[in-house]
Design brief:
Membrane topology: Multi-pass membrane protein
Oligomer: single chain
Protein name: Multiple C2 and transmembrane domain-containing protein 2
Number of domains: 2
Pfam families: C2
CATH architecture of the largest domain: Sandwich
Number of helices: 3
Family: Belongs to the MCTP family.
Strand content: 35-45%
CATH class of the largest domain: Mainly Beta
CATH topology of the largest domain: Immunoglobulin-like
Largest sheet: 5 strands, mixed
CATH superfamily of the largest domain: C2 domain
Order of helices and strands: EEEEEEEEEEEEEEEEEEHHHE
Organism: Morus notabilis
Helix content: under 10%
Length: about 350
């Protein structure tokens, strides 16, 4: 089965039969708006190195039901089709022919949270479906003030170093990016952003990058030709702030070191000055959140395996990178972000149940 670049296979049916039985759960990640199709192919392993196609079908993702809780999913029969390649029928060579049927339970799961970041530094724990979201408990205000002592990241005019710095912040579904300050080791942005907070046990991540698409020379010494597609912005360093360590209503103005791990050890690349304030909207809602599990209840009623969680995280991060790369202008995977990146992840849960052949 395939959704976009995600390909999963069932185990080979242990018995040779025309009515194979799998009873396996396969989970994919899909993002709104649903652009991909679910491609299902049944193959017959006739030799250890050869598989014959029995039948195939492609189904748009938006045709499947959306599930918000643990209610049962109705199963459906789908017809598998196969192209005809008869040598005696050249005019019907590409005609679709009925091959077999497959029995599936397919749904778009809205009760899970699909991780697209490290568990230790998670910034959002809400379920996929907006209908299940609780009201926000607070507001996070972040002022990206300045940086100082940045190291030169590339050469300019062939004989001196320079840095064209910008800052990216990510919390929950929302990304923000400051303007780029050209040729300055002590850039000043003085830009302010706000986020709604749904859980204080979360982390905001801020990264400082060097813009390599503005005509300066590349970091490797070549001429940068104004933003070639192969050039990647260099990461200067990043800062993480855990909201649970912030006292409500207090303004924190600190300089945070920008650290990068090198083979030789940790290197300080400069400092980032931030002003941060966390404001609570309701003390009762805050207490309610602390008294409940971190993840949505579906993670405890029908937990995903460790391998499934890691695979979903990897695929979700790939989807983020691909969609940001298609923005205008492109926002590359090393640090770009839209002002409001509000894509919602749906885990497409496919549960295979008894399948009958032709």
């Amino acid at each position: 089965m395939q959704v976009g670049n995600q390909i999963l296979r069932t185990k080979i049916c242990p018995t040779r039969t025309t009515n194979p039985l799998w009873n396996e759960d396969l989970v994919f990640v899909a993002a709104e708006p649903f652009e991909e199709e679910l491609v299902i192919a049944v193959e017959d392993k006739v030799h250890p190195s050869k598989d014959d196609l029995v039948g195939k079908i492609a189904l748009p993702l938006d045709t499947f039901d959306r599930r918000l809780d643990h209610r049962p999913v109705h199963s459906r029969w789908f017809n598998l089709e196969k192209y005809s390649f008869g040598m005696l029928e050249p005019d019907r060579r590409k005609e679709l022919k009925f091959s077999s049927r497959i029995h599936l339970r397919v749904c778009l799961e809205g009760g899970y949270h699909v991780l697209d970041e490290s568990t230790m530094y998670i910034s959002d724990q809400r379920p996929t479906a907006r209908q299940l979201w609780k009201p926000p408990i607070g507001i996070l205000e972040v002022g990206v003030l300045s940086a100082k002592g940045l190291l030169p990241m590339k050469m300019k005019d062939g004989n001196r170093g320079c840095t064209d710095a910008y800052c990216v912040a990510k919390y929950g579904h929302k990304w923000v990016r400051t303007r780029t300050i050209l040729d300055n080791f002590n850039p000043k942005w003085n830009e302010q952003y706000t986020w709604e907070v749904y859980d204080p046990c979360t982390v905001i991540t801020l990264g400082v990058f060097d813009n390599c698409h503005l005509g300066s020379e590349k970091p490797n010494g070549g001429v940068g030709g104004g933003g070639g597609g192969g050039v990647r912005d260099s990461r200067i360093g990043k800062v993480r702030v855990r909201l649970s360590t912030l006292e409500a209503y207090r303004i924190y103005t600190h300089s945070y070191p920008l650290l990068v791990l090198h083979p030789q050890g940790v290197k300080k690349m400069g400092e980032l000055q931030l002003a941060i304030r966390f404001t609570t909207l309701s003390l009762a809602n805050m207490i309610y959140v602390y008294g409940h599990p971190l993840l949505p209840k579906m993670h405890y009623l029908h937990p995903l395996t460790v391998n499934q969680v890691e695979n979903l995280r990897y695929q979700a991060m790939n989807i983020v990178s691909a969609r940001l790369g298609r923005a205008e202008p492109p926002l590359r995977e090393e640090g770009g972000g839209r002002r409001h990146f509000g894509k919602r992840w749906w885990s497409s849960c496919l549960m295979l149940i008894p399948t009958c052949g032709a």
